[in-house]
Fold these 4 entries.
Entry 1:
Amino acid sequence: MFKWIDKVYVNARKRVFKNLDTDEILNLELLDDPNNIVKDSETPLSAYCLNMAQQELVDDMSKTHTGTNITAHTVAGAGLTNKVYGFSKQNKTTQNKNICPSQYLNWESGYYETNGGKGDQSSRIRLINLLNVTPSTTYYLNTFLYDHNFIIRTYDNTKTLVRSIGNVNNTSTITTSETECFLGVSIYNSKDTSVTYEYYKKLFEDNELKPFICLKSETDKTYEEFIPNSPSPTYPSLIHCLGSDDVNLFNLELEQGAISGNGVDSVNNTRVRTAGYIELEKGTYAFSYSGGKNAGVYKYDMDNNFIATIVAWTAGSFYFTITEKCKLRFAFMIDNNTTISPNDVTKIKLQKGTVATPWSPFRVWYSRNNIKK
């Protein structure tokens, strides 16, 4: 279960929670002063509900959902609803044989001391978090880099030190006891104590240092990059909206000026254009707007290089098809002699399909939390 506690802000409209395991702060709203915490709350009921609801969502949402509502409201005293517009997906990964995070962003300068705490030593690096392992299990360890060895400490399920194994050479094994549930993992250069974190960072970037811990029983002990179980409490996965035919995908601002035939901006007070680009997957899209009489659509590659005009000046709503992932810009006019401003063009809607439906604001998805006592 997650371990969140309430925090109290001077501004009582703001809600914030703290994770007891990681010290992570979760804000339910944007905060004017993120340092405005004054004390721990004496009423952790909301945090309890958050813990339970979040765990339930993690357990329930590791798959693709279709529809408008995904709910998790069986937690006593809490109701939580995520409303999703159209189709959504959540990426799911299954942990491979390597249980040791293998990207340098998971590592920090220092090491796990013989007393179990984190110690400062610039010539060593350690995993930021303790590594979860199975009791009474034998593991194989390898950095795949000569003279770069592990230093291992073990911890019980309360993260209290059990023993200090110390140096573990490459291709060696360790066996956890029946009480050992976590490892404190450090790496050091056994021949050079003057190296720094930047040295290790470059080894990661050059794919020379490859931390690898797997079951001894694994028959293939060749290196594999770490892939976690996700979504999980440690490795969450975002829910992505895939959209539907009625979702407005247009989220750009307009500015004064034209887009010329070669896709570049030009000064013109009888034209307005989008100030940026919108990235779209291949498919068919309907486009509608109010306030202008004609619109044009311009196609660019993913590096913002102009490809072609895909819709020349066209009156009213229309649809178009793109055959590859690309970026688009849009321009509007009344006619060649009538001045137009960005404020004149309103209710712009870009949506999947061939039929333009009534305007709705840009909106991918939102979540609504209703945690009650």
Entry 2:
Amino acid sequence: MFRPLDKYCRKLKRELCCPRKLKNGFVRDARRMAEDFIKGNPGVSFDEVQRFLGEPRELAEYFMQTLDPAVISRHKRNTRAAAVTAVSLALLIAAACMAFTVYASNERKTAVITREVTIVIGEETNDE
């Protein structure tokens, strides 16, 4: 019974667009309600549990309506900023890799390999 409940909770979590702390708390409360329903009704099927809770999307929409709109807009703004930062960083890394590849390929062409012997002449010291 808990495997379908885990799947239900994952779907519910994906549907919620709010800060992680609120999301985890709501999913925990929904799981607790489902577990209490199962304990109160032995032999109940998961379809009945889902009818009791509702579809994950419906439950998420209901919860989102109870939140302050400022919290939701701030979360969306932060999520968007994080996504833009991640994409920018990925593009910067890709550009750096390409620049290094171009530099390394040009450097190899201009390298001159010579064989030189270096002789160091210094004063002789008596260690005896």
Entry 3:
Amino acid sequence: MIEAIGSCTFCGQTKMVRIEENLTQEEKNRQANWEATMQCGCEMSKAWSERQTAINYCQSYIKNKLRATEEVKDVLLKAAEIIGNGYADKVVINHEEVEFKVYEKKQKIIVKKKKVIEEGMSD
């Protein structure tokens, strides 16, 4: 880890932050600004930071605890990001008789999994 100066994306305030050393200069700048924004005290960064924390928590749950195929997990990880950033209210995936639903509730991103029983069609 090295120290770098980053600036808040919202208010521009600069801050000394710790970032990874083995990155390109562009990646270092991006990570420094991301860290500075996460640590800034302005109202916009606080709201953004809370949303990023909710996204990260949900993605950690998907990666480490949710039982699903890797392909489904990949889609759910992206869905958590989409919901967390406000691009959609809900994402529903049906895969092999299981329904996965990702949505926001009380500033948390929720993942629900339930077995779907399809009724047979009659003639």
Entry 4:
Amino acid sequence: MKKLLFILLTLVAFSGSAYCQNIKKAYMARQQENGTLYFIVPQEVFSNKENGPLTLDMVKLSTSDTVRLNFTVTCKDISPVDSVSFEASEITTRVPVEKIFIRPAKKSAWEHRYSLLIPYQDMKDIFAADRSPAVYVHSGAVETRYVAKDKIWKGYSEKIRTILSVMSAN
């Protein structure tokens, strides 16, 4: 009986530490003069069949009620993006973007990099949604939909919810 209990405790301890190590690789926290700065490393979670992945990273200062999302997409069109919307369950949020750059990419395409601010509570709500959200990139009247596969979204959203909990607790 003692052996079985030891094995179970070892498995629980190992699985918990493996999960924490995985989270540690997903973000960085640095103390700043005006609070703790959290950086969630870039991930390719969303994709579009024609354009490929949408790479997303996030930055939040503990004293702020907003999250800065930075994203990169590759498009055949050079036309700048004007806004992004997130659609998850009952939540739809549309946010204007700030252009960081547009530069040539391979195969007659353009790499676009943008940044936006989104309320922290909206971000928490998106990641708490029961299904993977869709991200819509708007360029004038053109709307491009990016989606996450359910399996990828499940793992990613669990990590982000844990990181958001760490942010809220500090």
